[in-house]
Amino acid sequence: MQPLSATKQLSHNDYTVAWICALPHEKTAARNMLDELHINPPQPEYDKNIYTFGGIHGHNVVIICQGDMGTTAAATVATRMDMVFRHLRFGLLVGIAGGVPDKKDVRLGDVIISKGDGVSGGVVAHDRGKVTETGFQTRPFLNGVPEVLRNAFNELASRHMDQDNKIAEYISQATARNPRFQQFNWPNLDDYLYKSHYVHVDPMDVKCDQCNKNEEHIVTRNIRDVPKNVPFVHFGTIASGNQVIKSAAERAGIAATHPGVLAVEMEAAGLMNVFGCATIRGICDYADSHKNDGWQNYAAATAAACAREVLEIIPTMKLEAMPAISAASIANTGAPIFLVPFPRDSYFVGRDTELRLLEDMLSRESNRFTEAAIVGLGGVGKTQIANEYAHRQYEKEKQKGPHDRQAIIWIHASSQARVEHSFKDIARKLNLISDQQTTEDVFPAVKDWFQSNDSGRWLLIMDNADDEEVFFKPFVSKNPLLHTGITRRLCDFLPEKSNCTILYTSRHHTCARELLKRTHSSKIMEVPMMSLEDSVRLLKNELGILGTLEALTIDELSMERLVELLGNLPLAITQAASFIRVNDLTPEVYTSLYDEMETEQEAFLKEEFVDWRRDSDMPNAVLLTWKLSFEQIRRKNEVAVKVLSILSVLDRHGLPDWMFP
């Protein structure tokens, strides 16, 4: 047998199941569970995701691997998929996890399926909550698994009472079809569960060869009456957070706080409240200091095979009759219209003053249309403040009656193409145009909706409005029906309506002032650098250690020195934390490397990283972000560029304020 070859091409609307992975080998396992492989349909230019399309037991499945681990990355993947795939019925988050064997006989290669226990919806966020006098209280996720999946899980549990699961069978079939999948078979390694007091001996010994395996250090477990390559499937709660758990004590603490937890991982908490999904995890380690990579491929395969068995149970006709989880028909649901491409940032800290000021700026005068702008240096956090404000407003709107609710809509404004894509997305999700209508219909249709009675009150956020030419430079778009050109400006399609608001974010005061001219508004908020305290909190959050025991082992002064070296700039702090995590460093080591030489600093600041909380078209590296602003200045004023170049070699403390009006 040969690996699958793509045989047919469907449209995005034909896919009903989203299969989400966090790691490349998880996607490999998923791809090898397909019955058929599909040719990729044409992809919108604004969608940067890489998909694999195929079929399993008659269901059309789209598979995606996140660009990074963590809850925020998972939430953003779901949000972006929702923009493209309008007929998805549910999602499956499938991959590996650390086992929690403290209360149940969970072993390497076993599969855990998230299932509610009456307290949570199958997933708990073990690192979110609040610090109280009695300790750290976590928050359960009440959004549960979709009904069709709950029913499928109950059927699966019933079958497994008197039948073997099909995991080994499906892995064997995949290996027969693709011999290179052999590396995902049972690894023929010993499965040792070390007692919680016994810590891994040698950090350089990745296979635990030096660890003592006598009865004093190993948990004695009964021999199972099934072959070793036949894993068990368990149903229970999965703990999710933004940090890798490599401590038996930390694992035991999670188990004590949440008695039903059988596994710990890093993505599910980002999906449960934004996407109808369930989590299926293969156990690759015990979330302790002895964890290694030897079981990862097999665990990825057992999880994927179990997901395939779940899809076998669900009838295709039943799935087609379900409503889509997409927001495509949101205008008819009665829910507040909320078209924001970013999930709420769980790492967001501080900015209370700026959020209060923004609230005051956007408070509406009776029967007036309001415009305001957030202005600041690239990377200072303008988009994050606007996103946090949007999510806070959304929480308020959900408490109001249907006729009093405010729509909250986001537009990427960094280029004409990005604005056009945003308008198209709004038109699709609000059912303003049919699939047969042309691009020429989008701009007037969206503007007309904003200005109609149907839209009610609304807040429109125009993010990254950095260039006046995007809005005011005439451009010609061709009408394929009339074979003529239509001259237009994007500013002509910006809506205006009483009791409604447009909020711009921009790097440049000149662009902000130009956009606000039509309403003679002077409501511009300058975003300062973060305070030292909030900068340290952000660093801890990004490192995944805020509120954990690990935070107590890191020198507070070293973190303060690091964020001060980075100028308390949020993007630089996020970038540094990403570098520290990926390279397994400490803040002290990173600071030492940063101090070594100027060229090293430049290399660090140019290092790109995946940040799902920012527009995918905007650079994430600090120097690249600043270079973008610098090039915009160069296009408009060559003399200003020469002056800035001279000033860059002078002592910044000696430069008078009057030079920077």
From TrEMBL:
Gene Ontology MF term list: ADP binding; catalytic activity
One BP annotation, GO: nucleoside metabolic process
Domain Nucleoside phosphorylase: 17-308
Pfam families per UniProt: NB-ARC (PF00931), PNP_UDP_1 (PF01048)
SUPFAM superfamilies: P-loop containing nucleoside triphosphate hydrolases (SSF52540), Purine and uridine phosphorylases (SSF53167)
Top-rank taxon: Eukaryota
Sequence ranges assigned to domain NB-ARC in this UniProt record: 355-542
InterPro entries per record: NB-ARC, NLR-like, Nucleoside_phosphorylase_d, Nucleoside_phosphorylase_sf, P-loop_NTPase
Name this polypeptide is given: Nucleoside phosphorylase domain-containing protein
Organism: Oidiodendron maius (strain Zn)
